[in-house]
Amino acid sequence: MKILVFGLGALGTVYSCLLKEQGHYVAGVDREAVVAAVQEHGVQVSGIWGTHVQELDKLVSRLEDLEERDFDLLIITVKSYDTAEVARQMAGFISPTTYVLLAQNGYGNFEAAAQYIDPARLIVGRVIFGAETLGAGVSKVTVIADDVIIGSPDSLIAAGTLDSISQACQDAGIPTRTSKEVMKYVWGKIIYNSALNPLGAILEVPYGRLADNPFTRQLMDGIIEEIFAVLHACGQKTLWAEPGTYRQVFYGQLIPPTAQHHASMLQDIQRGRKTEIDALNGAVVKLGRQCGVATPLNEVIVAMIKAKESMDG
């Protein structure tokens, strides 16, 4: 395949490096400083999936500098608050055979991208492996809780097409499978991130410490309860019938393999970057207001992250 990765951060580096290693044509887009560093040392991946170093086929800091327009797959790995602008820029690269994979966190990426790109070309990904940025184009895969799940929210893309993209990722060493209910998985990740990331960022501790402490555990239980109340009121189904069932999976299956992981939200704050709180707990608060459900804990969490951004950033 001919692949373009927009954003060579933690996830973008992993996707570009491993897909290139598998023999695909891979181009990358990022800021000038990142492009310069990757031109010098390539994209590098270490951690639980082994050590990999690859030189990409093309690197640019502006999409207009790309001569190619015949990509099979565009992978967007930027932060959720940049999705709409990146989709607007990428719209000119969409051909009748091009698909766009949104490999991002949070709620609203599909809706933001669909303002500029035909939903029949958009693939949503639920990514639940953890990667840390060690430098420009240098990423370390630290944990994985489950396969990446990809799918078309409205079943607008043929199953065979999704299967072929999933298989390409699987062959590259990124465990991936497809689902007709991808949004259920996306919401599962949003619940997971909303419970763990903000508290991990505020208290600056790994996920396991949050689960072990009775006070943070109580807070996470409350955040989860509010999210389920909002989803129920809005008619959004999840993989779990009620919050108690989810909590069993959360504490028993999801946290143990990621217990030593630090939230990417903490990394963003430490680097003086904007967090994705508005696409996580902030999205829950917004949906709660629309559906008439109070979300006081999530509101406090959003305010605390925004305060920490302004103080530590």
Strand content: 15-25%
> Number of folding domains?
2
Major sheet attributes: 8 strands, mixed
Q: Judging from the principal axes of the Cα atoms, what is the shape?
A: globular
Topology-level CATH name of the largest domain: Rossmann fold
Explain this structure.
This protein is α/β, with parallel strands linked by helices and 313 residues long. It folds into two domains: 178 residues, 3-Layer(aba) Sandwich (Rossmann fold), CATH 3.40.50.720; 129 residues, Orthogonal Bundle (N-(1-d-carboxylethyl)-l-norvaline Dehydrogenase, domain 2). It is built from twelve helices and twelve strands. The strands form two sheets. The protein has an eight-stranded mixed beta sheet with strand order 5-2-1-6-7-8-11-12, sandwiched between helices. A four-stranded mixed beta sheet has the order 4-3-10-9, with helices on one face. Helix 6 packs across helix 12 and helix 11 runs antiparallel to helix 12.
List the helices and strands and how they pair.
Layout: E1 2-6, H1 10-21, E2 25-29, H2 32-41, E3 43-47, E4 52-54, E5 58-60, E6 73-76, H3 83-90, E7 99-103, H4 109-113, E8 122-126, E9 129-135, E10 138-144, E11 148-151, H5 159-171, E12 176-178, H6 182-203, H7 207-212, H8 214-234, H9 243-254, H10 264-270, H11 281-291, H12 296-312
Parallel strand pairs: 1-2, 1-6, 2-5, 3-10, 6-7, 7-8, 11-12
Antiparallel strand pairs: 3-4, 8-11, 9-10
Helix pairs in contact: 6-8, 6-10, 6-12, 8-11, 11-12
What's the short story on this structure?
The protein is α/β, with parallel strands linked by helices.
Key traits:
single chain; 313 residues; alpha/beta; Rossmann fold; N-(1-d-carboxylethyl)-l-norvaline Dehydrogenase, domain 2; 2 domains; 4-stranded mixed sheet; 12 helices; 12 strands; 46% helix
